[in-house]
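user: Please supply your own:

assistant:
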Amino acid sequence: MLLGVQALADEPLGSTYVPMDSWVYSAFDRLAGLGVINKQFVGLRPWTRLQCAQLVLDAEDNLENAGGNNERAQPLLDALNQEFSDEIDYLNGSPARGAEVESVYTRAMGISGTPLRDGYHFGQTITDDFGRPFNTGFNNVSGFSARAVRNRFFAFLRGEYQFSPAYAGLTPSQQSYLAGADGTPTAINSQTTAATDHFDLLDTYAGMRISIFDVTFGKQTLWWGPGTMGPMLASDNVDPILMLRINQVQPIVLPGFFSILGPVRVQGFLGRLSGDQDPRGPYVHGEKALIKPTRNLEMGFSRTTEAFGQGIPLTLHNLFATYFSVSDTCCTANPQDFPGKRQSGFDMSYRLPLLRKWAAIYTDDLSEDDVSPLVNPGRAMYNPGLYLSQLPRLQNFDFRLELATTGQQSEHAYSSFFYKPAFANKGFLMGNAVGQWGKEFDASTTYWHSPRQRVEIGWNEHRVAKELIPNGGAQDSVRIKADWLAKKDMEFSALIQHERWSFPFLANGKQGDNVFSLQLTFYPKKLQSREALKNFN
């Protein structure tokens, strides 16, 4: 009680979180790859604006101690310094209070041909897009985001209008097959749907800072992995989930022998999934702990459980079982004490010796019904990657390579005997869109003209095994993405993508689609940089 009273009396500063589609994460990734920052936890995002501001201050100290200007890192640092100038002032003692409209945006996207919309069975043409609907024809999202903070209290609102054409659905025979394979009354993501024409809230929450923790409630996005293709357990591939989240925003070093673990961070949440669920209305909770034994090595241990819902009451006994039960219940029509669909994760990132300012490797692993993927590697599913922050003689370019596979084991990922289309929210997978029995390869390179002016070229290959659907399937795409800050308060984002896919179950022969997208984002309040950093480009 005394510690709680002290935590409330200290009144630490609160801060909203930076949205996962913000440019700052790729900028921090490159700064880390260049060896300029080393206190970030890449496996637990989003970060608060205050956390980002502290990373900027740490980077300034590191560059100053290194003695000299880094021609690749300095522009990144200057741009980030401008973005988080308000929060830097808060850390330096200015009052933390205010409210503003952060951004106003509109995106027009045209799709020709037939896109893939079902990552659970086949694949997704558009991934990691907050579960926004899309289909052949003209698609649009137009919205805004706003934030407010007053000392320990903070709130964030992001709402948008969404339009997408109607979906014809699969044939009755195709739906019947998928329903039988999934063990559900009807096949998910396969019915005819009307055109989407509504207003939706994305990340919208309120919270308060208590000691070293943030406590938030509302619709929130999670990103539990070091890569960019989509973490295995939690990503922004879904519409933000309504949840209660407790997040340790300030790392601690444990006393005594445990200090060898280095800084430690933890996070936990309890939320509820929606959409096509069997049973309906399941809850999901997750916990993650990260350690940083050295400044170049980070490891994360995570666990999620889908439980309760129609037929299984939310009781203290059942909640306790989801954490501590070591038994299982199989094939019962209505298991009152089923401990839930449990998944564990392990992720790691490491900057390579002798190449600290060039190369980092990482992995994000998932295991069904095991305490950790490390316990039984033969049953685990993997998502390794390599990031080069610069290339020899091409130091304005970076390079990223990622793989993902869920096809090594007899169990289907994200499914169980009771929770059939598990770990999906409104039809989209909560984790990596590689889905069940899938293998995916993604390679990309980005040209950094400036921190806010970048062009990326990428290639993606996705394969689905015949154990999931008859004759399996293949999906290949090439893309060009550009983010260009035309003025300090106006940004253009463009995507051109060509995709070819072949799923005999869906259609005869090879099919294709093209995606053309253009987004305009306006930042009403231009964040002022400090006097010494006026020309960040």
User: Anything to note?
Assistant: The domain at 2-522 is CATH 2.40.160.130 (Porin).
